Description:
Number of helices: 17
Number of strands: 10
Helix content: 40-55%
Strand order of the largest sheet: 1-2-3-6-7-8-9-10
Structural class: alpha/beta
Low-confidence stretches: 1-43
Mean pLDDT: 88
Shape: globular
Largest sheet: 8 strands, parallel, barrel
Radius of gyration: 20 Å
Order of helices and strands: HHHHEHHEHEHEEHEHHEHEHEHHEHH
Amino acid sequence: MPDTFQDDFFADDLPPPSAGAGQSRAKAAKSSTEPADETATTQRQAKRGDVALVPNAAQHAPLAAQLPPQLRMGVSTWSYPGWEGLVWDGAYDSSVLAKKGLSAYHQHPLLRTVCVDRTFWRPLTASQYAAFAAQVDADFRFVVKCPAGITDAQVRTEEGKPRELNPAFLDSCLAIEHFVVPTLEGLGDKLGVLVFQLSPLPWGLLSQPSRVLDKLGLLLAAVREALVKHTQVIVAVEVRDPELLSPSLAQTLKAHGATYCLGLHGKMPPIEAQLPILRALWPGPLVCRWNLNRIFGAYGYADAQKRHEPFSEIRSEDQHTRELLARTIAGITGAGQPAFVTISNDAEGCAPLSIALLAQAVTHLTQESHAPKLNKS
């Protein structure tokens, strides 16, 4: 018999989410992680020393033990003071969390990966990566984004407005020298995924996708060659133009041993419209970055931040995406493939709580698949 979740993953129609359940679970997850003395918590001064994991994170260990071992979930960036009582044991300044937070973060039972987003804005050195790696255990894995200086076809102003075409766009030599080599040297066996996020393309390139895919193919070939001794590292490509979701993209990725990164973001179609690319690449791993709730639109990061700060609770629940993502995870891991899923605070308001809810949904599905079936006679 075919795997139940694999059938769901390849099905043309996915079942609608069950009504109402997500809201109650969101409230339950929040209430179970409230600090014991909220008044005292808010009055404490920000700590400056080493960061510690909140003790009640241990309550998630039984849930984590029920998840597929191939699944790694984590957040996009970890330096949020608002996670006090959820991840951190007290009040810490964001600068302290940025430098030392991983030492506590990686001990959380549900957090087995993290997306290093800052590399998108500026390349890091091997020693900077090594400092991250030194804070986590041997089982932890990093998802790292390629710098925009390589994956953005345009040079932009400080405000993000296009200024001119980028001559270094998808330059394979620069990608190897300034991205692949430093991550390998610094993270070693703790490197899990390299993500190449293509920023929105100018019309001149978007109207000629074959030019972009040809350049992308050359870059991916060079990356795969550089990773010849590191076959465990997944190479994933994320796009921000729906027009690129085509059989040609799938063919380019498959030809070079890369996968498609599900980019759950207001500028892209919903998850169900992106799954055909993964089906075309099957069998293969799952890489997903749940970045922004679609209710905020394509350019809604500022609005999402304003609504969600201090990122300590679910304020924009997206049960539809969560349930379909859970089915996708269950199908792919059920077939023995690895899955890396990272979530931003801008997805629902609080990434650690979104991960807990997603873990519950995945566990529910896997338990259903293993439940004994009654014979009808």
